Amino acid sequence: MLKSLFNRWVFLVLMISVLVSLRRTPEKIVESETELTHLIFSVFLQRDLAQEDEPSSGSTLYLEYDYYRETCPEAEKIVSSRMARIYEASLLVSAGLLRLFFQDCFIRGCDASLFLDDSNGNKSYLIERQAIPHTTLKGFDKIGLIKEGLEMACPRVVSCADTLALATRDGILLTGGPYYPVFTGRRDSIRSYYQEAMAGVPGPDDNLNRILQLFSVRGFNERETVSLIDLVRVYASDDGTTFRVDFATAMVKLLILGVLYGSQGQV
Ligand SMILES: *[C@@H]1O[C@H](CO)[C@@H](O)[C@H](O)[C@H]1NC(C)=O
């Protein structure tokens, strides 16, 4: 049933409302057709920009809406139904996944590098998950449960990075948070980044100035940073519209940070 809500048109309308919020106050709606065209164009521009950030790999794959519609048509439905069940049993899962998602995306983009154990059993090789800012993360097992459902339906098709991105979005919706569009087609990293996570992820003891600085390096402004931090840290039930719109905008930005395409990553 959720699936029918997430059809292309609803998506476009939602995407437009997010883009509108980039330019003006949330109360205003799109008035002219020219503006609408401009905004739709922006959706594609955003995709192209996301792609250009990556060194050319000759890959023809892009992030797109419902990327798995042919290869795993039930994918988003599986994620949302499993998330709904997990959420029923544990309301805190949404906050846990949001933090997990955020900290994975922060280093080299949303590539599930946080999930990867590339140590090959070498105990002195530290993986990203062992970095200090990550030691209190929760929800790895929940992503495992969702991924299990996906693997049963379509083995080795849906990336872990997309699973996390979709599950996080659904988790936020389940708690009554803002909706934001999630493009799919991410690939998973083939290595984890312990050192970068130690140096670049805001830790529990960092002050606001340091956090703002770490975010601005990645192209986030102060407002976006503060709304992300608020949600990630407190999972606040602030229902101010501006906050929700800022949050959705920041999430959309986070979702396209340094994405891996095609042969740059794995599934
Ligand atoms: C194990 O990891 C350490 C730290 O990265 C590295 O110096 C060492 O060469 C690795 N050992 C093997 C057998 O790969």
UniProtKB/TrEMBL annotation:
Cofactor: how bound? Binds 2 calcium ions per subunit.
Q: Which residues bind substrate?
A: P202
Q: Which cofactor does it need?
A: heme b; Ca(2+)
Tell me the GO molecular function terms.
heme binding; lactoperoxidase activity; metal ion binding
Catalytic activity line of the entry: 2 a phenolic donor + H2O2 = 2 a phenolic radical donor + 2 H2O
Any idea which UniProt keywords this protein has? Calcium, Disulfide bond, Heme, Iron, Metal-binding, Oxidoreductase, Peroxidase, Signal
User: Ranges for the Plant heme peroxidase family profile domain?
Assistant: 62-243
Query: Which Cys pairs are S-S linked?
Result: C72-C154, C105-C110
Family indicated by similarity:
Belongs to the peroxidase family.
Name of the protein in its database record:
peroxidase
To which species is this protein native?
A: Dipteronia dyeriana
